[in-house]
Predict the structure.
Amino acid sequence: MNIRAATAQDAPAISEMLQKLVAAGKRTARADIEFVRENYTDNPVGIRCCLAEDEKGSLLGIQSLIHATEGNRYETPVGWGIIGTHVSPDAARRGVGRRLFECSREAAIEAGLSKIEAFIGKDNIVAQSYYERLGFETFRHTDTAVCKVWTRES
Ligand SMILES: CC(C)(COP(=O)(O)OP(=O)(O)OC[C@H]1O[C@@H](n2cnc3c(N)ncnc32)[C@H](O)[C@@H]1OP(=O)(O)O)[C@@H](O)C(=O)NCCC(=O)NCCS
């Protein structure tokens, strides 16, 4: 598995993978190319969008890490990071998510973040287990989500 930073040129392949997640019932948000560019590969408040691909260059998953800025839609405290993970249904539970976080964690430390928040659907038990496994801890709940936080070791 190869891990690298995603670019705008990856947006069509990322969109295709997100559409597979929608078809598999694992995603309800938009999955079009414009959405991918705005939110993941070319987000003006993006820190790094890490991408995992197999030896043939097929996309396995992405993880986006962005700055929580004033007025962010998740109401994450300003100055923290916000993370989102999307692994292809064809590549689930093979360690892709875990490898992606090594990349994002490095980016978070380089960016000087001390906290990262994940906003997870309250019924999304797999994603909750995933983030817990990476050391994220429950920080708050909303009507629809559980928010888990990673804290940099001092
Ligand atoms: C959640 C998600 C990112 C996990 O990615 P992944 O590459 O499958 O995860 P990994 O193989 O790296 O697994 C890491 C850990 O996550 C947990 N995990 C992953 N899949 C799991 C499952 N099906 N059931 C229970 N725990 C699971 C386990 O603790 C696992 O560690 P282990 O295999 O040593 O037990 C992936 O399932 C996904 O993209 N889901 C759909 C989109 C989504 O819900 N994203 C999160 C939005 S907030």
Q: What stands out?
A: The helical segments are 11-23, 33-41, 96-110, 125-133. The two ends are 30 Å apart (CA to CA). The first strand starts at residue 2 and ends at 5.
